[in-house]
Amino acid sequence: MKFMLDAGHGYSTPGKRTPDGMREYEFNREAARYAREELKKYENVEVYFSHSDERDVPLTERTNKGNSLNVDAFVSIHANAFGSGGWNNAEGIETYAYSSQPSRSTALAKAIQRQMVASTKRLDRGVKFANFHVLRETTMTAVLVECGFMTNREEAALLKTDSYRKTCGQAIGRAIASYYGLTLKTTSGLYKVQVGAFKKKENADELVKQLKKAGFSPFIYFDK
Fold first, then answer.
1. Number of H helices, E strands in the chain
2. Which CATH number does 2-179 carry?
3. What average pLDDT does the segment 155-167 reach?
4. Residue 146, Cα to own-chain centre: how many angstroms?
5. What are the residue boundaries of the structural domains of the chain, listed by start?
6. What span, in angstroms and rounded, lies between the C-alpha atoms of 132 and 130?
7. Across the strands, what pairs with 128?
8. pTM here?
9. Using one digit for the tens of pLDDT, what is the confidence trace for 105-149?
10. How many other C-beta atoms are found inside a 10 Å radius of the C-beta of residue 186?
C-alpha cells in the first residue's frame, strides 16, 4: 500500500509557531519522520512525503502529488493553535475528516484519534469535519491530525521534545497500520538456544557428544 505523510506548512510559513518561537513545522516534520519509520516496519508499504525542508510546498502541489501517486491515504500532521498568538488554556488532540467522505476518511480519523489519545494521554477533543484543502482536494482517504496546542504552555513544551514527537509519529503509524490490516515484516535475526550449563567441563563434553549423535552442531562457550 502507498501512504503520503504531509508535515503541514514549512520553516518559513509566517505565524505558525509557539509564542516563544518554535516553528510548527519543526514538530510536524519530525512526527512525520517517525510515522514513516513506524510504517516501514510493515510489508509492502511505500511512504511518501508531500513536504520539503527546502521550501514551503504549496497546498495544491501537495494534493496533486498525492493524487498523481494514487496513494491509499493522505495524512496531514499539524500542531494546533488558538487565539491571537498568546498563551491560553486550549488543549488536546483532534483529528479532521472531510464530510463528503464519511465512510473512508472518518473511519481512519477515528482510528488515529483513538491511538493518539491513548499514546499521548492528552485531552480527547474528538473527530471533526472541516473544509481544509488537503481534505477537500485529495481523491483518496484523507485526514488531518492536530497533535497538541502550540498556544498551551504545557503542550508547547511537549511539542518541542523528541520523545513527544516520536510518540505522536509512532501512534499515527500504528493507527494507519491497524486500520489497513498491515502485516509486520518478519525478522531476519538469529535466535540462539542454550541447552545446558555445567561447572564441570566433562559434563559439557558429554552433552555435546549426545547432541552431535542427534544431528545437531553444538559448541561449548566458557563464561568466566
1. 7, 6
2. 3.40.630.40
3. 98
4. 13
5. 2-179, 192-224
6. 6
7. 96
8. 0.83
9. 999 999 999 999 999 999 999 999 999 999 999 999 999 999 999
10. 7
